[in-house]
Amino acid sequence: MRHLSVASLLITLLFLSEAAAAGEVPRTRSGRPDFSGNYDISNLTPFSRPKEFGVQKYLTDEQIAAIAKRQASFVSNDDRQLDPERGPEKADDPGAYNYFWLDFGTDALPIDGRVRTSVIIDPPNGQMPEITAAGKQRMGLIAQYDYWGKPKDVAWWMETGDGPYDDPESFTLGIRCIYLDVASLPMRSLPYNNLKTIVQNEDHVVINIEWMHHARVIRIGKDGKRPAHPGDWYNIYGGDSVAWWEGDTLVVDTTNIRDWPGSARPGVHVVERFTPVQDKGLVYRYTVTDPDYTAPYTGELMWP
Question: How far apart are CA 164 and CA 254, in angstroms?
Fold first, then answer.
């Protein structure tokens, strides 16, 4: 391994500090944008456009302020001191975490100075495409099973002698904190664990995703060339990701995606684009082609 001398290190640090002071996009030695760093993508911009906005693509200043105020009020209300004598909850469902553990963010984040009414920008109505017949069938099959991959409403442990909590292998990937697709591919703002850490060199980009601590290792082609994906024999959760540069934008192409409970999902294809914005972070755009939907869909959000 080649090590930097003290002098070389000082020169590199001086170059980076001068670039930062000048408001320039940080760059690697080869001149490519350097995305290395930490990003918090907590964002109150709705994923799909709420019906009340109709064909409106951008929020007004008043609407942006109302979203932030509503969120602040929700947090404040949930943080209030509870009455220790309040007795048992009346609801049958005790719920999950209280708000102390959650972080949706405090604002809807602008792109190019404007805040959209939805992260989804295509279809133009800001809604997800219709689900195909095949998609409904696949989702229906998944919905027939409970957290342990067993039929719902059936006391299967009475027949097998197994207990539903006996083995970790009987739990879903999410319950076991192994993989969560909406946090990893494409990457969306979620109720918590929205931190992303990028480490980059000339050949690879690694994106460490706080939710499930999933690390995406992405190969970068040289001279703008696109690396090849492996054959259909290879599939993993999160898929196989390769990348190439188009100017200052890193384009990431992902296929070979594995589905729950372990089979390949042919036809699923995700293209992501990371574009640096001076002094602001990255604009992250993705397009998903999925046989479960009648058309591809595209989303875009800011990574501060």
Answer: 35
